[in-house]
Structures are given as structure tokens and as C-alpha cells.
Amino acid sequence: MIGYVTVGVRDLDRAGKFYDAIAEELGTPRMFTTDTFIAWGTPDGAAGIGVCYPYDGNPMSVGNGGMVALQAKDKAQVDRIYNLAISLGATDEGPPGPRGDTFYAGYFRDPDGNKLNAFVMG
């Protein structure tokens, strides 16, 4: 089971504002903040997400093929998360819509280029 996923960022304050807004839409609180790391999630809940400056001190880079998928409660929430992300400076990687018969998702990259999606199954 995945406990949490972490993505690297260039600007922790900017990333915090971006992910705070999306976490609020998902009903997920910020768990903690340090000078180099912010995490959202609930103790003993579903997997959380964190953003951080790379520990090795080198500039962050985006992993090729890596993506964080945010589970929404319904298609309307997928649409809201996608539109919220775009309004906060995300770039489009594929607007919300069906991907097959039982998968609905919208894809975007956060302001640092990390790829995410909001999705619902069923």
C-alpha cells in the first residue's frame, strides 16, 4: 500500500498554494509544513502527497513517465479539480473526459511541470 507520494518543486510557497487549493477541493487537510517540505493527507487515510525541495540540493526535475493520480468522488469533481488547477497556473495535458468505458480523467502539470490527473472509475 502506498503511504504517500512526493514531488520535487522549485518554489515551496507557490507549490503550497497550488496544492492547498486542490487538497481543499478533495477535502484533504495539510498535515505538516517544514522549511523544505509540505504534506497533505490524513493519518491512517488514503495515500497522501508531499512537495519538497530535493534533499540532495540539486535542482528539481520532472520524472519522465511519472504521474500522481488524485481520486475524485465523481465526474463533476474531476472537472472542478482540473479547472482549478488550470486557474492556478497548471498546464493542460488532456482535458477531462472519458478514457474508455469506465475511466474519466483530466490531466495537467503543476507549475513545476509535475504531471497529475484527477480521475474517477465507474
In short:
The protein is α/β, with parallel strands linked by helices and 122 residues long. The chain has two helices and eight strands, in the order E-H-E-E-E-E-H-E-E-E.
How would you portray this structure in words?
- This protein is of the alpha/beta class and 122 residues long.
- The chain has one domain (4-58, 65-121): 2,3-Dihydroxybiphenyl 1,2-Dioxygenase, domain 1 (Roll), CATH 3.10.180.10.
- 23% of the residues lie in helices and 36% in strands.
- It is built from 2 helices and 8 strands.
- It has helices at 12-26, 75-87, and strands at 4-8, 30-33, 37-40, 48-52, 68-71, 91-98, 103-109, 115-121.
- The strands form 2 sheets. Strands 1-4-3-2 form a 4-stranded mixed β-sheet, covered by helices on one side. The protein has a 4-stranded mixed β-sheet with strand order 5-8-7-6, with helices on one face.
- The mean pLDDT is 94.
From the structure above, extract its key features:
122 residues, alpha/beta, 2,3-Dihydroxybiphenyl 1,2-Dioxygenase, domain 1, 8 strands, 36% strand
Secondary structure blueprint with pairings:
Layout: E1 4-8, H1 12-26, E2 30-33, E3 37-40, E4 48-52, E5 68-71, H2 75-87, E6 91-98, E7 103-109, E8 115-121
Parallel strand pairs: 1-4, 5-8
Antiparallel strand pairs: 2-3, 3-4, 6-7, 7-8
- How does the overall form come out from the CA principal axes? globular
User: Strand percentage, roughly?
Assistant: 35-45%
CATH topology call: 2,3-Dihydroxybiphenyl 1,2-Dioxygenase, domain 1
Oligomer: single chain
Tell me the number of strands: 8
Task: Give the C-level CATH assignment.
Answer: Alpha Beta
What is the count of helical runs?
2
Order of neighbouring strands in the sheet with most strands: 1-4-3-2
Uncertain runs with pLDDT below 50, 5 residues or more? none
Q: Helix- and strand-based class?
A: alpha/beta
Helix content: 10-25%
Mean pLDDT: 94
Q: Into how many domains do the coordinates divide?
A: 1
Largest sheet: 4 strands, mixed
Superfamily at the CATH H level? 2,3-Dihydroxybiphenyl 1,2-Dioxygenase, domain 1
| Element-level helix/strand string | EHEEEEHEEE
Q: Distance between termini?
A: 22 Å
CATH architecture: Roll
User: How many whole angstroms does the radius of gyration measure?
Assistant: 14 Å
Domain VOC: 1-121
Protein name: Glyoxalase family protein
